[in-house]
Structure formats: C-alpha cells, structure tokens
Amino acid sequence: MTENLHTILAETQKKGYVIAPAGYGKTHLIAMAVGAATHRQLVLTHTYAGVSSLKKKMQQLAVPSSLYQVDTIASWALRMCLSFPATSKWSVEYPDDEDWDKLYLACASLLDRPFIKKLLGSSYSGLYVDEYQDCSVQQHMLVEGIARVLPCRILGDPLQAIFDFANQPVEWEKHIYPQYQKLGELSIPWRWQLAKAPELGQWLDNIGTRLRTNEQFSIQAPLPRGITRISVDLNDFADRKRLNFLYKFLNDEDSVIAIYSGDQKSKNKAHKLAQALAGKFSSIEEVEGKDLFRFIKKIEAAKTLSKKMILAIEFTKKCMTGVEGVLTTGTKRGEVAKATQATKHPQILRVANKFLSSATSAHLLAFLQAIQKVKETSTYRRDLLNRLIKVLQSNVDNPEKTLMESANNFQRDFRHTGRPVRYKKLIGTTLLVKGLEYQHAIILEADTMTPKDLYVALTRGAKTLTIVSLRTVLPS
C-alpha cells in the first residue's frame, strides 16, 4: 500500500477506485482515510458484518464518530426512500427479494432531485463504498447519483465477485475503469503478516495472481507451512472416518470456519454437516431468515393446536439433534399426554401440554427452551433457533402484535445490528462468510468451486488453511 494512500483518498475530489485484495488492509485503509477527513463521510457496504467490521476498525483507530456514518447500501437506500415517500414513490417497509432492484432504482431517481442533492451536500462531504465488486448495476446507478454530489471512492476486488444477481452485476471494464481514476492498489497481505503466517500470505498472494489470469495451481505436497490438503470424499457416507479431520479443531480456542461453495445445494450441505457433527460445528444462516419466516407463516396459518405443535416439533428438529428421543409419543402426534413412570422428561411434557392448551408465544418459547436444556439434544443451527427465540421473546413483551409483526420488527433491527457470531466453530458458504476473518479456514469440496468462490474461501483463514479436495490441481 502506498504509504500515504489514505491521504490521497481523503483529499480526492473526484471519482476514484482502489483495488483491494482480500486481507490486504482495506478496512484499515478506509478508517485511516475517514480519520484524515475534516467533515462527515458516508461509508456504504453490503452486509451488516461489513458494517460491524468497519465500525470496529474506526473505534480501534480512534476515528471520531462525528466523521462517519456507516451503513449498508440496502438500508441507506430504504431509509432514504421511506423518508420521502411522496417523491420516491416508495412505501414498502419490508422489501422482498424481488423488490430490492426496484428500490435502488427509486433511490437513484430520488437522488436526482435538487433538494436531495442539497441534503446530501449538507450531510456529508464524501462517499466511500466498500466491496464494490458485489454491486449490481442498479446499486451502481444509486452510487453514481451520490457521486454527482460528493467525492466518491470505491474499493473492491473483481476476483471476489461471487454474488449472483437477477440482473447484471457491475462490470469493472465497463462501469469503473473508464469512469473512475485509479487511486491505488493494496499490495501487502496484512491479514497473514499480523497473524504471524507470512508463508501462507505469500502463497495466497501467488494464488490470487494465478486466478486473476485464469491459471490453475497445485496443492500437492510439499505445501508451505500452515497449509494442509485432505483427500476425502465428504459424500461417501459409508466412510465413518470421513469427518475425523474436523475434530482436531474442537479443542482449539481459535475461531474456525468450514466453507462450502455458495450455491443452494451447498447451503443445505452446511446444515447437514453441522447436524452430522451433532452441533460441534454450528451452521450459519442467511441474513434473510427464510426458514424462520416460512415457519412463522405456517404456524400462524395452522387451524388446530395439534397442527401447531407438529410444526413446532418439525422446526425444532431442523435446529437440534435428539429431539425425537425426548418427546412422548402423544406429544409427537400433537396430542395432550399424561406423564407415566416411563416418561423421560416430564418437564418437557408439561410445557408441551400447555402449548397444546393455548398456543401462545410464551408457551412455545418454554417448549423450545425445555428441549434445548436436556443433555440428549444438541443444537446445530444455533443461529436459526436463537432468532426464533428472540422473536418469541419480543412477542411475549409486546402481546398486542402478531407473531409475524414481531418477526418483521426483529428482522428490521437484525439488519441494522448484524449477526454477533459468538460460537467459534462454524460452517457456512462463501456468500455468508465473505469479508469475514477467522483464525483457521477449512475449504470443503474445494475441487467443486469456481475460481472466485475458491479465492474467497482460501482467504478467510489467517493462521492455517485446510483444503479438502480429491484433486491435486485447482480450480478443476
């Protein structure tokens, strides 16, 4: 990194870009540049994990909070449009997947209004957009609207462009390089230098260079220190030892991420693997919480208490192992049952019967927590279960609201506060862990990944990298 690059960013009055590979200090650079400013900067990114990371770095570098507002593009656009509904012609508070592109276009149109330009100019003196390779064309149009008023600095890495859009993703060759001035390029792999793993960092730097030119690379031994290749077929369920390599990480206090590719099939694999490991690794959920909202819609629509109980049990089994063994036969059928001497967990039966007499959020919450407490069960989708528990708690505190209203309020707040990942042994996909850092990364089925997914996965671990692949040359 150019020693004074943060000053160059802070002082530019035009549109410029910085090429920033994963782990090369992009977040640090943004915080330094904002700290060198004299007036408030708008800093936009794509995820609330990214928002949290940026805010944390600002605090570490003692950047005054008066100098920045950090937000996601989605949240900022939604708030802008809802603040001026008559002008933006936007009133949808909880957009669905298909609504977001319309929202960005509505916001881009709003930004052309003279009074909005005046508002922007009086509120901020500059714009930073992080992870620009993840922008869609619609988001780019929104950013262009802001850039007509404020100096705009965008930072990103085209090799990490792994998000799929219904419409065209931003094309650097078309939308960026001809229109924006190159302000610099980060060149030092700080993530690995700071983790005292310089050999790993140098190897990844070389891999990044190869992938950018569509070259393959070998993972045959000997490999640099910190890199291990495991040749095992994770789909060979007859091989009882196929998951043994994961157990060595359990006694380590460091954070560990096991990573699949970003497609839907891989998302399901992540949950299945967490289940097979009995919750020793926990799977990460998508921000949208589709499984949570699907369950709430079903349980609100259920006509009978029996059906509600069966749905609750189905959801619980999606999150925990061992559920079948702690419930009575009657409970599993959705019936009020009596405790006998053979009843293993009468406390679970009692709360189940209460729910079957009155399907309140308080009774459902007690039922879930009772199952979670017994030693026979293990939670493997902690993220999903904890979200439902928080929705239920909110609904208990606000009984005048429907369960769906409580879920929508929770989701709104969740988008703003982000996902605090307290559990240190996790399984996710490239889409869910992109931009995050862990001490150790395990690349699952590396030989099935696209070059971009592979690069994102490889650059998550700061100390060690374990590559699970049946092939010795990647990408396949």
What level of helicity do the residues show?
40-55%
Number of helices: 22
Q: Mind telling me the C-alpha Rg?
A: 25 Å
Strand content: 5-15%
Low-pLDDT runs: none
Question: What this model shows, in words?
Answer:
Helix content is 46%, strand content 14%. The chain has 476 residues and is of the alpha/beta class. A 6-stranded parallel β-sheet has the order 3-2-4-5-1-6, with helices on both faces. A 6-stranded parallel β-sheet has the order 8-15-14-9-13-10, sandwiched between helices. It is globular, with a radius of gyration of 25 Å.
What's the SSE blueprint?
Elements: H1 5-11, E1 15-19, H2 26-35, E2 41-45, H3 48-60, E3 68-72, H4 73-83, H5 85-88, H6 100-110, H7 114-123, E4 126-129, H8 137-147, E5 152-156, H9 172-176, E6 181-185, H10 190-194, H11 198-212, E7 217-218, E8 227-230, H12 244-247, E9 256-260, H13 264-276, E10 282-283, H14 290-301, H15 305-319, E11 320-321, H16 329-332, H17 346-357, H18 361-373, E12 378-379, H19 382-397, H20 403-417, E13 425-429, H21 430-433, E14 438-443, H22 451-458, E15 461-468, E16 473-474
Parallel strand pairs: 1-5, 1-6, 2-3, 2-4, 4-5, 8-15, 9-13, 9-14, 10-13, 14-15
Antiparallel strand pairs: 7-16, 11-12
Overview features:
476 residues; alpha/beta; 6-stranded parallel sheet; 22 helices; 16 strands
Short structural summary:
By secondary structure, the chain is α/β, with parallel strands linked by helices. 46% of the residues lie in helices and 14% in strands. It has helices spanning 5-11, 26-35, 48-60, 73-83, 85-88, 100-110, 114-123, 137-147, 172-176, 190-194, 198-212, 244-247, 264-276, 290-301, 305-319, 329-332, 346-357, 361-373, 382-397, 403-417, 430-433, 451-458, and strands at residues 15-19, 41-45, 68-72, 126-129, 152-156, 181-185, 217-218, 227-230, 256-260, 282-283, 320-321, 378-379, 425-429, 438-443, 461-468, 473-474.
